[in-house]
Amino acid sequence: MGTHIAATTKRLRIGTAISLAGFYHPLRLAEEVALLDVISGGRVNWGAGRGFDPTEHKVFGIGPKDSYAKFRESVDIVLQAWNNEKVNHHGEFWQFEDVEVLPKPLQDPMPVWIAASSHDALAWAAESGHSIMMDPHATHPEIAAKRDYYKTELESHGFSIEGRDIPMARTIALGATQQEAEEIGRRGAEFMFGSYLRKKENVRGAAAGAQKTAAGPDVITAAVEGHADPVARYVNEVAICGTPEKVIDDIQRLQETNSMDYLMIAPLSHSSFMMFTEKVMPAFI
Fold first, then answer.
1. Which pLDDT belongs to residue 221?
2. Which residue from 80, 84, 64, 85 is spatially nearest to 22, judged by alpha carbons?
3. Are the CB atoms for 177 and 188 separated by under 8 Å?
4. Which residue, 110, 138, 200, 270, shows the most beta carbons closer than 10 Å to its own?
């Protein structure tokens, strides 16, 4: 997909949000992303994440206790491959001695983001100085609290949040009326909870560490524990639902209350995507 976009566009940036880094051989991942950066003329944003679906982890042979560690080690190796002439690495999962990885990315440095939602993920990203992408399934107050926590941790390790793009992912449902938008939002939420968010074995991975965040339990944890109708809570407190005029107002409010300056949308219907493109985006250009 990235190479197709590179071949058919000239200015559009190409983001890998997200590469499930622990599922790849890290040297192959480093080569493929670097090659995409070269052939696109330096237009790649690399986003990496751990993933949370236990079925995927089982298929790729990653046990629950190894999930975080293997992901983080893989990210470190990819960055070593890009930033050093040769890779020398002796870790828990990978051993490399004087391995040259080519090509190197055209960009120096390559823009890198880590998908982070749990307390541990935010703390690790901050300690390592990585920029983050924020998850689509936390409520608006929760996402604000997580950003504040990340900023505090980042500064405590000698890094600054200034000059960083911090994408906030939000699910979006648009309609000609508020009722139509909420119905689209409800259908989207029902699909997500029915397919993966509400399954306890999956949620346990998705919400790992959520109880320890400054935001407290997120919408996924609340759904499992029965604190609220999860679909209604999702529509009312997580997704941005409404007419184009209301969505514009909601985004402007999030800019003020959540320091949101980089919105990454996940539309809950094709019509929502089209309406966002045609009637919401022009207000921010």
1. 53
2. 64
3. no
4. 138
Cα torsion 252, 258, 259, 262: sign = negative
For the chain, residues with pLDDT lower than 50 are 200, 202-217, 224
pLDDT in the model for residue 192: 85
Contact between 67 and 15 (Cβ < 8 Å): no
- The answer for residues whose C-beta is within 8 angstroms of residue 273's C-beta and 6 or more apart is 265, 267
Distance of CA 48 to the CA centre of its chain: 8
**H/E/C letters for each residue in 178-191?**
HHHHHHHHHHHHHH
User: pTM for the complete prediction?
Assistant: 0.85
Q: Indicate the angle between helix axes 67-83 and 26-39, nearest 10 degrees.
A: 50
Q: Where are the alpha helices (DSSP H) in 160-229?
A: 178-192, 200-206, 219-225
Residue 213 has a pLDDT of: 39
Residue 127 pairs in a beta bridge with none
CB-based contact 167:262 (threshold 8 Å): yes
Q: What is the pLDDT of residue 210?
A: 36
Count of C-beta atoms within a 10 Å radius of residue 161: 16
Question: Which residues lie below 8 Å from residue 230, measured CB to CB, with a gap of 6+?
Answer: 189, 193, 197, 198, 219, 222, 223
Q: Enter the tokens of residue 82.
A: 């890009």
Segment 228-268, tens digit of pLDDT? 688 999 999 999 999 999 999 999 999 999 999 999 999 99
Buried b (16+ CB within 10 A) or exposed e, 206-239: bbbebeebebebbbbbbbbeeeeebbebbbeebb
Per-residue pLDDT of 146-168, as tens digits, reads: 999 999 999 999 999 999 999 99
N-to-C CA span, the chain: 26
